Amino acid sequence: MCEKHQDQAHGASEAAISGARFKVAEMTCDHCAATIRKAFATTMPGTEISIDLASREVTVAGDAAAAAETLRAAGYESQPIG
User: Fold this and answer.
1) Least packed by Cβ within 10 Å: which of 40, 43, 74, 81?
2) Span 22-36, pLDDT tens digits
3) Which of 6-10, 21-25, 36-40 has the lowest mean pLDDT?
4) What secondary structure letter does DSSP report for 19?
5) How many CA atoms lie within 13 A of 70 on its CB side?
6) pTM exceeding the 0.90 threshold for the entire prediction
């Protein structure tokens, strides 16, 4: 169960994009993914984002520092990948 949202994880994934990749260990359910998407829509409108719940990875086509800050502001700690 997702400790943040008490929802069940679904392991859905989306088509991969090229950009800054982050491991987001606390992202475990669809609600987590929706929260992250909403944060990017607000702080970095129009930014292409890919979320893979199965691997708990977020890829963002854009500024890596701004993406990391957006994840933090949404309540998620992240680690850059690669």
Assistant:
1) 81
2) 999 999 999 999 999
3) 6-10
4) S
5) 24
6) no
Reading the block at residue 58, the tokens are 């977020």
**Distant-in-sequence contacts of 35-43, Cβ < 8 A, 24+ apart:** 35/4, 35/5, 35/74, 35/75, 36/71, 36/74, 36/76, 38/74, 39/70, 39/71, 39/73, 39/74, 40/67, 40/70, 43/69, 43/70, 43/73
Domains of the chain with CATH codes = 20-81 (3.30.70.100)
Size of the chain in residues: 82
Supply 74's token pair. Answer: 């949404």
Rounded distance between C-alpha atoms, residue 25 and residue 52, angstroms: 11
From the number of C-beta atoms within 10 Å of its C-beta (0-12, 13-18, 19+), residue 9 rates as: middle
State residue 1's pLDDT score: 47
